[in-house]
Amino acid sequence: MNPLTLRVIRDEHRALAAMLRSIPLLLAEHRRHDRLPDFAALRAMLFYVDEFPERLHHPKESELLFPKLRARVPGVRDILDRLDQDHARGERAVRDLEHSLLGFEMLGVVRRDAFERQLHRYVDAYLRHMELEEREILPLALQVLSAEDWAELDAAFEANRDPFTGHAPGAEYQDLFRKIVAALPAPIGVGPAL
Ligand SMILES: [Fe+2]
Ligand SMILES: [Fe+2]
Q: When you count CB atoms within 10 A of the terminal residue's CB, does the N or C end of the chain come out lower?
């Protein structure tokens, strides 16, 4: 059994992880050549995180998937509490990072170190969050949830349609995705290799 919900969650994790891992590489490349990064592309990437994972992926985990696991497996409560806390802080964390990027853009290299440090912390924490879900939560869900649970979850997660997981972006998102894809290296984008 390979429920649609788990495929959607894993696909979205994979796409987001690829993008998040590319950002420090992009920044390092610009730093090496002593030039400023493409701020518009970086803004587009952070805006995407705020617009898709923060609004679609995390709320559905916290509101639909996690409560079902809490009800069936009391021993997993501590991990779910931690993941829920990450979700609750996620929007604020990405907004803070966007603000730090704005500082770099407005004030120049004097703010480069601070932004890059904050970005590394953000990316590390996000990758650890997704790894924890994949290691502890998704296999457990597969063991304990019923066919009715999956039908309910699949109906909700099927609607996510994150453009980085193979869905055509809606009209309003086309420019945003074009910008991101142009800046990122393969396989996620078509920009120069890093
Ligand atoms: Fe999550
Ligand atoms: Fe997740």
A: N
- For residue 54, count other CB atoms closer than 10 A to its CB: 18
Residues pairing with 191 in the sheet:
185
Q: How far is the CA of 23 from the centre of ligand 2 (A)?
A: 19
- 194 C-alpha vs ligand 1 centroid, how far in Å? 28
Ion ligand 1 — residues with CB under 5 Å? Answer: 61
Question: What is the CA(133)–ligand 2 centre distance, in A?
Answer: 6
Tell me the CA–centroid distance for residue 123 and ligand 1, in Å. 14
Pair 134, 10: CB distance under 8 Å = yes
Q: What are the pLDDT digits (tens) for 47-84?
A: 999 988 888 999 999 999 999 999 999 999 999 999 99
Answer CATH for 4-183 from 1.20.120.520, 1.10.357.10, 3.30.365.10, 3.30.565.10: 1.20.120.520
pTM over 0.70: yes
Ligand approaching nearest to the C-alpha of 90:
1
d(CA 99, CA 103): 6
